[in-house]
Amino acid sequence: xxxxxxxxxxxxxxxxxxxxxxxxxxxxxxxxxxxxxxxxxxxxxxxxxxxxxxxxxxxxxxxxxxxxxxxxxxxxxxxxxxxxxxxxxxxxxxxxxxxxxxxxxxxxxxxxxxxxxxxxxxxxxxxxxxxxxxxxxxxxxxxxxxxxxxxxxxxxxxxxxxxxxxxxxxxxxxxxxxxxxxxxxxxxxxxxxxxxxxxxxxxxxxxxxxxxxxxxxxxxxxxxxxxxxxxxxxxxxxxxxxxxxxxxxxxxxxxxxxxxxxxxxxxxxxxxxxxxxxxxxxxxxxxxxxxxxxxxxxxxxxxxxxxxxxxxxxxxxxxxxxxxxxxxxxxxxxxxxxxxxxxxxxxxxxxxxxxxxxxxxxxxxxxxxxxxxxxxxxxxxxxxxxxxxxxxxxxxxxxxxxxxxxxxxxxxxxxxxxxxxxxxxxxxxxxxxxxxxxxxxxxxxxxxxxxxxxxxxxxxxxxxxxxxxxxxxxxxxxxxxxxxxxxxxxxxxxxxxxxxxxxxxxxxxxxxxxxxxxxxxxxxxxxxxxxxxxxxxxxxxxxxxxxxxxxxxxxxxxxxxxxxxxxxxxxxxxxxxxxxxxxxxxxxxxxxxxxxxxxxxxxxxxxxxxxxxxxxxxxxxxxxxxxxxxxxxxxxxxxxxxxxxxxxxxxxxxxxxxxxxxxxxxxxxxxxxxxxxxxxxxxxxxxxxxxxxxxxxxxxxxxxxxxxxxxxxxxxxxxxxxxxxxxxxxxxxxxxxxxxxxxxxxxxxxxxxxxxxxxxxxxxxxxxxxxxxxxxxxxxxxxxxxxxxxxxxxxxxxxxxxxxxxxxxxxxxxxxxxxxxxxxxxxxxxxxxxxxxxxxxxxxxxxxxxxxxxxxxxxxxxxxxxxxxxxxxxxxxxxxxxxxxxxxxxxxxxxxxxxxxxxxxxxxxxxxxxxxxxxxxxxxxxxxxxxxxxxxxxxxxxxxxxxxxxxxxxxxxxxxxxxxxxxxxxxxxxxxxxxxxxxxxxxxxxxxxxxxxxxxxxxxxxxxxxxxxxxxxxxxxxxxxxxxxxxxxxxxxxxxxxxxxxxxxxxxxxxxxxxxxxxxxxxxxxxxxxxxxxxxxxxxxxxxxxxxxxxxxxxxxxxxxxxxxxxxxxxxxxxxxxxxxxxxxxxxxxxxxxxxxxxxxxxxxxxxxxxxxxxxxxxxxxxxxxxxxxxxxxxxxxxxxxxxxxxxxxxxxxxxxxxxxxxxxxxxxxxxxxxxxxxxxxxxxxxxxxxxxxxxxxxxxxxxxxxxxxxxxxxxxxxxxxxxxxxxxxxxxxxxxxxxxxxxxxxxxxxxxxxxxxxxxxxxxxxxxxxxxxxxxxxxxxxxxxxxxxxxxxxxxxxxxxxxxxxxxxxxxxxxxxxxxxxxxxxxxxxxxxxxxxxxxxxxxxxxxxxxxxxxxxxxxxxxxxxxxxxxxxxxxxxxxxxxxxxxxxxxxxxxxxxxxxxxxxxxxxxxx
Length: 1457
Description:
The protein is mostly helical. Helix content is 67%, strand content 1%.
């Protein structure tokens, strides 16, 4: 059941100026409707929808006019106004399309007149000289050329003027973009304008090509020719300009090919020219001079990879590949494009470029399919499945089918699907099912592990070619294997899609093969029976994913299978009721019934009345010990295919039965599902009640009498009301004080859904209203929920109170209101952190009460009578301002006291609670609709000043070199002496010499009145702070630290919230915003200072949260000075890191403390669709620092760089933009591991760990050697080609240190890291011979690593060797390794060498036998050679140290054989 809200269509109305209205009034007639009066009436409407209806009446009226009306000045005036209106409307306004559609039906006699009017209007548009208004003109030109005959006719009349404007607009926008270099907001707008200009130019050439060619070929000095040359030259410049957006460059690639195609002659030679451009073999002698003059950079310079890519795209999209119109040259160009694209796949690693490449390769396969329809035999041979081109394409597919980007994976699937179609086209007339290419693909795919996601989509494509039956003949257990995989959520969608393709194809095959339905039992045995077994006995995850992904698709394919499932499960339901870990037959039955009902395959009333499922059976499911069975039983009752289906009395009784036992579930996921399902039930009640009200309203008395035997609508509605009332009673019952968190969460969630669903507009009939169930006791119950230590309970209770606030607030008398407010103020200064959260929610609730100002705030804060007089000020705004004033006065006094004694502040009045409450009430305020702007500006300034003062008091603690223990707990003089060094760091604001005093502070918490200022609110604060007389405060270091870092946290969040008050459109008037640009800059400097200097993680992590709010605001701001601030801050901190200044306060310990957070926030705020210049600049600087060329350089910058890189590689917001730097990061980590400095090695280790996670994914299981977080060797080196020579060189260096002759232990620091990476790779049967990267050079070095004296290194070298040995080379390699073992006559036998060699043999054989490859005579021959070789080395088994290894090896071979 899906609930969709109807989307309201909004249309902006058009308005005419005074002169136009006067003209229409002059021609309009009151006695009859003519065209002028219709337009006048239309213009006077203020509703766009009504104007659309009015415009649709124009053509019927015009068609009634006679032939002589064309000379009527009224018609001319109306057409002029219609033209002006058309060009004034925005391109996305539906009115524009409706007007164009109407004018397309204009009678012939009026066309000349209409064209004159539109030409006049368009001519005025083309005179625009303001670059920033070009976009409107371009949009109008595009609209005229899109299915608008009148618009196209106008453009033909102004052909040269339009061409001149397009030429001028491209040059002007380019120049304006150059002038605004650095202003990202303006540049982004100009880039999009430029993109539209290029697209409109292309549209112009395509739509009006006849006009161009008519005057183009006469002479090259003509205006049209020169203009086309200018367009071509501009497009070439844009194509090669790397500073432009990628979308502009790729569109320019299309334009270059299109314009060249329009101008080039003879056209048959064009493919050869493009081939030469792509291959870099252009010979000027054969190229026209005009092409060299305008596209010289494409002919003379070596083209960048991106330019080559965009030219390939242009050729594929703009040339005609059908019907063989380009002949042999076109076929050769097609092959050349494939060659260039496949060579680029190893070079283009940026996410956007990799995505473009995959998309363009998919376009190539479509073009190849089109070309093959009428291709020569030669092309069919070259595109056959056994050809080099297809082989390399397959290599690309195998490398990219598990790419991190969804778009690349999707395009890879399309490429594979088209590739199969290409092969099918080349073998037309042959039997596809027995084709060796398909057979080889199926064999290879089935030999892959099921954790490879690309396997599923590829098999699905092959099923469509060869059929399910042919695949099942190879292995009948495939459906069970796929179902077994579905315990992993990441694989479940892929597995279910493959299963759907297979069982649908299989059913179609059976339907065509058998005339009767005898095949259904066989189909059930293959696809349904394994499902039922797993549903009954499978683990929780597997059954859940099968029910979610597989079962709905199976029932959709074969709804009749439901009766088979019910029959099988009912037969064993009593005997197999399940347990806590398994669903049993009862649980499987509930799941099947739930899914079937939710998708409309059954009616619950039918199966209950027929006795298929009894009420007792459903009750057993509702209280089953397996949580998911309870949920499925509840889902059976709540989920229906139609949202208006009547809820029966039996269903309501079962729901009440369920709620008696399941509201206290300990599982969060179960509680969320209960809330979601009951919400669907309430929606059913609400929507079906509206249907019942309509039925009741439309029924006559006679109908009521006739249908008296049926359920009466009013009776059903009363049942609904009683049911909802009983549900609310039950929910409020369980909210008693002391009730458990799960119970409260469930009850509040369900009550919130009820309040939301049953709140309909006034005047509409409502079956139930929660307001009517609320009394003062229940409001008190909800307020008590604020005291829960779980914030999610507070959130739910507050949300519910807000939904019923009118009733809830009216039930609060003045005395109760005063008590609640006083409690909130007391809690806001509690030493328990969660108390201030309670205070915040309580204040947020109370500020909506109209009487708060007089009852509570009047006693405590200075009152402004003008606010009462101003009725336009909302209650919330007045109350919020007064509450913040009171809290601010309190916290200012507490800061004053904290300066005297931070210890006393931490023990008696921690300040963070007040600040938290201020932030909380600010977030409730609608800042876009404030009345008391002056007061708020003053308040914001005071809040910022207070934040700085509070930070100055507490920051010395969190910025201390050891903030975790600043109060001596020991009485010995040595400890006190050591702590004296810390004293000067933290005591500037604290005059208490508490280091020399006992840790028990036995002073009065009461502040002497004479030390305070005279105003009354401060006295109130002192009373609040005083507590009990002569209270003894036991102060610990933890209390001081908590007070300080939480205060820093709240200050950061408050400042971040205040930054959002800056208007998004910065203007010269500072009065437009509540916060000024200067204040924002100061806040930025504050964050910079504390992020770079705080030592305590809690402090800088939460300062980071506030700083992120600031940087996000800056990225959206139009102020140039503010936009450039992130770049300036970034440059400054990078310079400070590089400077190695001894006076620098940057923290080199604690993983560089807040520095990585600071840089993260600056880089993550960069617009996602930009060129990410800041990221590129930062990564370049950091990489140079992380792997310095000069060993004598300072260590501290290197440590900072490594720590920052680790944070950036872990930041998911940077997404795939960070991936091009992974290879450099790996190199820096491995080289850093060889540093003699521990700090560098430590940071390198952390960076290496982050990179392994970034490359191979987050480890989900405990198995270190599981293939889920691994990739094939060829995929790894294809994605990170620069690591191939680096790892090879490092491996060579490492193995040179392994001196097997020496007795001493020599271990290279990088050995472990290298083997760790190589061990994460695994071999694939899909590895072909088309990759330029051979795995062979690694093999001898990895074999030598097996001689390491460290056991772990030998074991890892055994695993690392496997992916580098091709499957068909395994027997030969194993024999070679065994022959390298010493003979019995050898003088010196090294146990480590023998053990390492045997481990490598073992892992190679294990992988070889698991791969299911070569189970043939070759396999038997290879295994025989291995066994023969082992026999010659059996004497080693007599030696105790290698017996175990020989035994394991022999056992592994015997088990597989």
